[in-house]
């Protein structure tokens, strides 16, 4: 019998079932709270539709920035077990204050107190955590509360375009249904949180299981508010509708404003209180498939630290590049400040369980998360056979703690992960992986395999200031860009930055509506003519973008562009792909390519370096597949063939070589940190300056000795052993001014040798994870 999942115990703790009643609270006095608002806001980021004031990221309290020991499940552990967890390094854990059925304390807002919990339980738990040096993470599941559901029908979320208020059999489903946080209930949540932090000053942070709008709401409050703000009725739920996509932006802004008001109210009471909470955008892989989205990626900037559910079973692409991407992405949506990721310790889904879960896999999952920038969080309470592995993992985090906080990426290459493109271009939960995410995963995979240091960035990072540190920008099928983003990309390239882009980049605006003429044509060096179909002599959309296409992207747009092609390198002047590796992999003739193709026409001065045509059809039209040119002082490589998506979904090794060569050729400068190691080694350089100037290169051994032995669709990483990787070379530009280099956490000194105008060290052996730490002048 498996123990409860993190979701089960954090959401409901030890709750019993039952219905409840409450007297509603009036809306918070938001204006008064704002008048007392402390200085809690950092820099402003790029505006989005319906922003009424500049959107600023929250300032993260110092204690959050320095936290590495997030350990869940202490609320269901004995005092002795809690003491052991604190000794092992847990410094933040949950205490339940409200569950979907009851309050656990004497609340003036929630009348139904849990009858199964002693009256002084919460007080005693808080005092015990304080004595152990463990900060209290208060738990409130914000969109499920039976008492509120029963007493306030108008606060219920209405998922469909109807005036009918949802009803639920509270005997069968005593938790009720989802409440709408976009209206009065959102302010009620703020009131409850303010009550908790006032009554329990020791509460350091709050966590919410599901702070989201569910893709929109048609309750009376949402209808009235949307009408007030736009003059329009909320349209029917249809991602093909520009009106609905516009509404979704409004819903995102409204939810963001709730969190902004929440932070202002709580930090007016205690400036150090934080939101360290589960995120449903940058959460587990399934959340990336949510269309419509439940919350914007940008809302993570209003959390002091988003926490990700890090699932690695077969349904969450466990044996792929996706888990590494997930850890990197949750750090990215925090603007590379503070973020956490909890690796779920389960062997498989359907049903979820820990049956035969190898102890060694605990360390692998924890170290993968911290390699890519996320602080690992762990469910400490586990079956007896896994407790030694949990202790080992916590000890590993504790030993590495001096090098895990106050860090930022060491910039060279930036890969855009566009939340607007994912939702407004992907448009379908069942298709978003194929239509967009595969492009991002393909570039990320190629960079990781070739040890190219890339940083994931977001829509709001496409500004001149945020792009300035980078030498390379990668736009994988970044279809939905607004005019300001396009101007920033153009400026970046004109000033000497390298750009690599693919397929429909710049095709649509921020609402997902195709432009009459795609943006960035001059920068990319091509004129977009629509999608191409293998075997056809004309584009799937035609030779021009017609009026219907200019208003929407019909579902058949993606279906028709699939195909199997012959890919061929060209002997162009300054050949981009004349590398020994590519010749070794594909020779000189055409080779098979499986994937989408955009029909493009190179502009004057742009040169095609490869072509595609329908497979085994000598009479088929030859189409440009890769086009390169210079724009201003920068170089651009554009993939009309979706090599990036194919490298994730249907990979041939030459795909990796093409993508990596483009990423090396476009920027004017090579990476300042270079790693020579097998492709199973993840290498992630970060800069740490709080405790002296340091450059840290995380090395993670992702080798799986049983990978590929089972059914491909059912593969799950359940590693039982490690095969050490020997003699990994890490080279630094001499301009860093390296004083000394150590291998941590072992503390071994590494000899620095000047070889070919670079400072090089050799890691003699890598087991699971190590850090090459260079102390700089």
From TrEMBL:
One of its GO terms (molecular function) is hydrolase activity. The keyword Signal does not apply. It comes from the Bacteria. CDD domains: A4_beta-galactosidase_middle_domain. PROSITE patterns: TAT (PS51318). Keywords: Hydrolase. The keyword Lyase does not apply. This is TIM-barrel-type glycoside hydrolase. The lineage of its organism: Bacteria, Pseudomonadati, Planctomycetota, Planctomycetia, Gemmatales.
């Amino acid at each position: 019998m498996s123990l409860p999942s993190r979701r089960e115990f954090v959401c409901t703790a030890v709750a019993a079932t039952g219905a409840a009643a409450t007297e509603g609270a009036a809306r918070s006095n938001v204006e008064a709270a704002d008048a007392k608002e402390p200085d809690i806001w950092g820099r402003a980021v790029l505006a989005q539709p319906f922003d009424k004031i500049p959107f600023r990221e929250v300032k993260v309290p110092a204690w959050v920035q320095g936290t590495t020991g997030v350990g869940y499940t202490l609320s269901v552990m004995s005092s002795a077990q809690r003491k052991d967890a604190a000794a092992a390094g847990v410094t933040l854990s949950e205490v339940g204050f409200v569950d979907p059925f009851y309050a656990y304390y004497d609340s003036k807002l929630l009348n139904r107190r849990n009858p199964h919990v002693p009256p002084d339980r919460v007080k005693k738990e808080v005092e015990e955590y304080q004595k152990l040096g463990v900060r209290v993470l208060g738990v409130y599941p914000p969109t499920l509360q039976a008492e509120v559901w029963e007493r306030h029908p108008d606060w219920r979320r209405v998922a469909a375009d109807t005036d009918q208020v949802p009803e639920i059999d509270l005997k069968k489903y005593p938790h009720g249904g989802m409440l709408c946080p976009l209206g009065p209930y959102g302010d009620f949540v703020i009131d409850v949180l303010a009550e908790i932090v006032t009554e329990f000053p020791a509460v350091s942070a709050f966590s919410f299981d599901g702070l989201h709008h569910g893709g929109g709401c048609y309750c009376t409050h949402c209808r009235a508010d949307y009408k007030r703000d736009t003059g329009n009725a909320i349209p029917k739920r249809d991602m093909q509708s520009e009106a609905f996509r516009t509404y979704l932006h409004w819903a995102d802004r409204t939810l963001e404003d709730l969190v902004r008001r929440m932070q202002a109210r709580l930090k007016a009471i205690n400036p150090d209180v934080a939101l360290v909470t589960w995120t449903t955008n940058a959460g587990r892989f399934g959340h990336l498939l949510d269309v419509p989205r439940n919350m914007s990626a940008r809302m993570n900037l209003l959390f002091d630290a988003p926490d990700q559910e890090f699932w690695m079973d077969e349904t969450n692409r466990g044996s792929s590049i996706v888990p590494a991407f997930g850890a990197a992405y949750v750090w990215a949506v925090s603007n590379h400040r503070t973020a956490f990721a909890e690796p779920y310790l389960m062997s498989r889904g359907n049903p979820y369980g820990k049956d035969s879960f190898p102890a060694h896999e605990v360390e692998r999952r924890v170290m993968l998360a911290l390699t890519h920038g996320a602080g690992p969080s762990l469910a400490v309470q586990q079956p007896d056979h896994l407790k030694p592995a949990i202790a080992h993992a916590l000890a590993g985090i504790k030993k590495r703690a001096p090098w895990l906080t106050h860090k930022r990426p060491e910039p060279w290459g930036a890969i855009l992960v566009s939340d607007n493109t994912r939702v407004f271009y992907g448009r379908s939960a069942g298709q978003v992986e194929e239509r967009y995410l595969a492009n991002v995963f393909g570039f990320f995979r190629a960079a990781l395999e070739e040890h190219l240091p890339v940083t994931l960035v977001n829509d709001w990072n496409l500004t001149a200031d945020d792009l300035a540190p980078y030498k390379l920008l990668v736009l994988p099928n970044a279809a939905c860009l607004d005019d300001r983003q396009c101007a920033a990309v153009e400026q970046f390239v004109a000033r000497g930055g390298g750009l690599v882009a693919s397929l429909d980049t710049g095709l649509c605006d921020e609402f997902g509506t195709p432009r009459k003429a795609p943006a960035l044509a001059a920068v990319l060096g091509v004129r977009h003519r629509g999608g191409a179909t293998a075997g056809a002599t004309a584009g799937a959309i035609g030779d021009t973008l017609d009026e219907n296409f200019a208003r929407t992207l019909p579902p058949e747009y993606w279906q028709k562009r699939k195909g199997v092609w012959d890919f061929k390198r060209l002997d162009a002047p300054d050949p981009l792909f004349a590398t020994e590796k590519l010749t070794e992999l594909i020779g000189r003739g055409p080779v098979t390519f499986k994937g989408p193709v955009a029909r493009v026409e190179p502009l004057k001065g742009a040169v095609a370096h490869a072509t595609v045509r329908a497979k085994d059809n000598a009479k088929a039209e030859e189409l440009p597949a890769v086009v390169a040119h210079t724009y201003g002082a920068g170089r651009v490589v554009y993939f009309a063939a979706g090599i990036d998506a194919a490298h994730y979904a249907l990979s041939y090794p030459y795909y990796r070589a093409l993508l990596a060569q483009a990423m090396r050729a476009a920027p004017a400068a090579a990476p300042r940190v270079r790693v020579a190691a097998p492709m199973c080694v993840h290498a992630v350089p970060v800069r740490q300056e709080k405790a002296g100037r340091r450059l840290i290169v995380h090395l993670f051994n992702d080798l799986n000795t049983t990978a590929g032995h089972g059914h491909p669709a059912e593969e799950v990483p359940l590693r039982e052993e490690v095969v050490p990787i020997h003699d990994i070379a890490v080279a630094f530009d001499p301009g860093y001014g390296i004083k000394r280099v150590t291998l941590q956490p072992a503390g071994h000194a590494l000899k620095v040798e000047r070889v070919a105008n670079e400072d090089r060290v050799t890691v003699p052996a890598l087991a699971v994870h190590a850090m090459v730490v260079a102390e700089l002048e």
